[in-house]
Amino acid sequence: MKVLKFGGSSVAKPENIVKIKNIISKYNDPIILVVSAFGGVTDLLLQAGSLASAQDQKYKEILHTLEERHLATVKELIPVTTQSKVLSKVKSEFNVLETLLEGAYFIGEITPKLSDKIVSYGELLSSYIISEYLINEKLDAVFKDSRELIITHKLNGKNVVNFTKTNANCEEFFNSSKKQVSVCPGFIAISEEGISTTLGRGGSDYTAAIYAAAVDADILEIWTDVSGMYTANPKMVKQAKAIPHISYEEAMELSHFGAKVLYPPTIQPVLSKGISIVIKNTFSPEEKGTLITKSKNEKGKTVRGISHIGNIALLSLEGPGMVGIPGISKRFFEVLSQADISVVLITQASSEHSICVGISANDVEKAISIVNEAFEYEIERGRIKTVIPESDLAIVALVGDNMKSHQGLSGKMFSTLGKNNVNIRVIAQGASERNISCIIDEKDVKKALNALHEEFFEENIKQLNLFVMGVGNVGAKFLEQIREQRKFLKENLKLNIRVIGMSNSRTMLFDEKGIDLNDWATKLANGEKADKVKFLALVNSLNYRNSIFVDNTASEEVSKTYSEYLGNSISVVTCNKIACSSEFENYSHLKSLARTYNAPFLFETNVGAGLPIIDTLKHLIASGDKILKIQAVLSGSLNFVFNNFNDQTTFHDVVKQAQEEGYTEPDPKIDLSGVDVMRKILILARESGNQLEISDIKNNPFLPEESLNTDNNEDFFASLIKHEPHFQSLFSSAKKSDSKLKYVAQFDDGKASVGLQEIPKGHDFYNLEGSDNIVLFYTERYPNQPMIIKGAGAGAAVTASGIFADIIRIGNF
Ligand code: ADP
Ligand code: ASP
Ligand code: MG
Fold it and tell me: Can you give the residue ranges of the ACT domain (predicted)?
């Protein structure tokens, strides 16, 4: 004999019930078919009951909708010729239900017994309708009310199954039944006094397990809306996978810690008989699902699944009077248990100074008042503090049989959560070591589950979630490079890069699953109005792990938002130099936020575009070297200008060309006045460990005073035309001494300067081509022959690739 249970979503619609028929038609052996109420019905019945008891007539609307839904299901499944008997039975059951709800309405109260009676109609109606449908479909089926088989009695105020009586009833009925399919309602039972009882929310799984154990079934099949027990709730973690094989204990632990796919008490009855459980998907019956058996997971993975329970509150009993006094915890747990409050997690510090328990937030008010009352004597004398709860918490648990024989799992768990700025409130590890759990803020659950899942199950594929501001020249190239490189990164570096949000100055676009980079431009153009504050709020509210804010703008306003990102553990990658060249205090504050919140702040492209200048500097210093002197040509724009400027051209035309080809900042004066190079040498000096301000840098300008004083591009260009002779004289002077004009930045002995220089033949700077940059690092290890980094130092493609490199650095972080 086999026992098959179909849950609420499997019976939610007539077409789903047809699927069930197709599934069971393939079986030849006798079947006990346990069904839940149609999806959502139990909740609605409970809601109707509480509305009625609050004397709110709205319960009638719910009743009416429920009746219509059940009648419509009958009409859809059963042919008109045989419908009437079923319809009238359903109607008469609804009449009884109406009377029961009316009772609650008139008395203004609902007792647990009445509530049980009311909700029992969900399963009663579904099982009856399904049995009639199967009979009509010529299956050899019969309806059997579980209330004639499963008997409960009271134990410590709770309804528990009387297995002696239940097993005897089941053996007698099922062993003598001649029908192939017995359709039974899940969830409901009857007390020894003959009153309807229920087995707890999600209890249809338990019904099926009780039957399976009673008849010594070959297998217990739980059919639901997912393809097995997953490594994490698939509704929270997209990457979760069905676990092919798992032990009873692991399954029990996972379900106990919130894997709703199996009601926790379900395992007990079948475990003692060694009956296997298989979890299958009604909507994809071909998938293997999960097999749950006795066999231990000897060779398998250490961590088998991650689960969570939401809506948790934390109660802490603490005070100096607890140390060394026996019996305090006993009293604490006793009062909670007497009030029927179940404790989900316990921790006690070894100082015995406090005991912390996690309970359902629904019980919190009751818990505080009874605990404070029970310890009134100690509280009055200051030995124990009044209990103050904390709410909006959740438990996250790692589960696996083999965890005990592996070191470092909790370290990995907590560092993963820490890296993602998930604050851990309480930690507990079961003595069985099958479980490590912790309590975190409810708002962090999705991030925590996904980060842990990535760490323990995803072959180290790390997802990076990007929020890109600025999609102009550099930004667009950057997106193009990601699009082209995504597959390679996933396969080779195990990095999965997704762009979740993007914005230009006009519009912004978000897609929680990742924006399709093939047509982002049109989508962005049709996006909502750009708003930096809203952008930040959205990034924060998504609360994704490994979030990175990418700034491709040159905007000061954007640079001012970095602290908000870093303070929320969101990394920042930027080619915008403003933040790092602002006041030293701001620069170091951002760096310290990055350290505190484990969120890298990277700006490699601030100096030399894609050239690995800052990264190299960092490595030199980290490995103990000391920077003595830096000499550099750091302006790709100025290089382009002076490499193209001669007595055959005009300075104005060359600058114009540089601007048009994207070699200068949008405001070319920033480059020509030397401000841009000042910022760069300032950043290098700071990164070498010096506390410098921009005002400490000596600037020897080559622009005439008038050009420097313009305040818009038009006037600036006009002034260049006017002062052409000045520029020509700079050129001819250099030419005379067989030198070339280079704009040089220098940092030596704690002092920095920038200015135009005539570089003689043979100097490292002399042959610098096009927009190339060059940096000479003189260090303690490279005192005479400097370390040289040279290459293209401007242009959208190389800058984009430098940003990309920073993203990859974060991926490997
Ligand atoms: P049914 O109505 O069939 O009893 P449930 O809603 O009670 O179904 O249980 C199935 C649901 O359990 C899934 O849709 C899923 O959202 C949830 N769930 C939570 N954790 C897990 C997990 N680890 N594996 C599979 N499902 C899970
Ligand atoms: N219908 C009940 C519930 O929703 C029992 C079950 O579906 O397992 O809790
Ligand atoms: Mg269920």
Answer: 398-476
